[in-house]
Specification:
- There is one protein chain.
- The relative contact order is 0.15.
- It is built from seven helices and six strands, in the order E-H-E-E-H-E-H-E-E-H-H-H-H.
- It is elongated and about 60 Å long.
- By secondary structure, it is α+β, with helices and mostly antiparallel strands.
- Helix 1 packs across helix 5 and helix 2 runs parallel beside helix 3.
- The protein has a six-stranded mixed sheet with strand order 5-4-1-3-2-6.
- It starts with a strand and ends with a helix.
Length: 179
């Protein structure tokens, strides 16, 4: 797959998802809990953003109050960036039951997205912007239809398998658009 994971604790994981999800190289974010703290588990491409750069960017956004490391290499880098008292080994992780907070509070939650699209769209919506730049023309057409037809029985699609969810939503869209 070519990606790695980083787990960062902060005062609010919704803010963490919003801030970290916009970084180039971040391909997925997930809010959760570890060691009694709110964390964001970040999947990133180290060919695009190094672990050190990810931590420094997170620290600038107040999203690296504590770093849970996966291995000795991450531990050494994290100690250099945030200091030894703010670093420990990864513990049991538990996912938050309200993923992609900013998307979940908008009509965009009904639109199937890949993990990368969801991370970016959640960040954009959380920053008061439309996520149109990360969506395909067909997704935008369906999203526009969903927005104009809020009383239809749309299902929350956050975190669902993209291919399966897209097939279901697109069929629903076609049947409603051309009854």
């Amino acid at each position: 797959k070519g990606t790695e994971k980083a787990t960062l604790a902060m005062y609010c994981f919704w803010t963490g998802e919003k801030e970290l999800g916009k970084l180039p190289g971040v391909v997925a974010t997930e809010a959760g809990f570890m060691g009694g703290k709110e964390v964001v588990q970040v999947e990133y491409n180290p060919a695009v953003i190094s672990y050190e750069k990810l931590l420094k960017s997170a620290e600038k956004s107040n999203c690296a109050g504590h770093v849970f490391t996966e291995n000795a290499e991450q531990q050494q880098i994290a100690i250099e960036v945030v200091g030894k008292p703010s670093v420990s080994a990864k513990e049991n992780y538990r996912t938050d039951k309200a993923p992609k907070y900013y998307l979940s509070r908008s009509h965009w939650k009904y639109l199937p997205m890949t993990e990368l699209q969801a991370a970016r769209a959640n960040s954009l919506v959380g920053n008061g912007q439309l996520p149109t730049e990360v969506l395909s023309p067909r997704q935008l057409e369906v999203a526009h239809f969903i927005e104009k037809n809020p009383k239809k029985a749309w299902e929350d699609r956050i975190g669902q398998d993209f291919d399966k969810a897209w097939e279901e939503v697109y069929q629903q869209f076609l049947s409603l658009k051309h009854p």
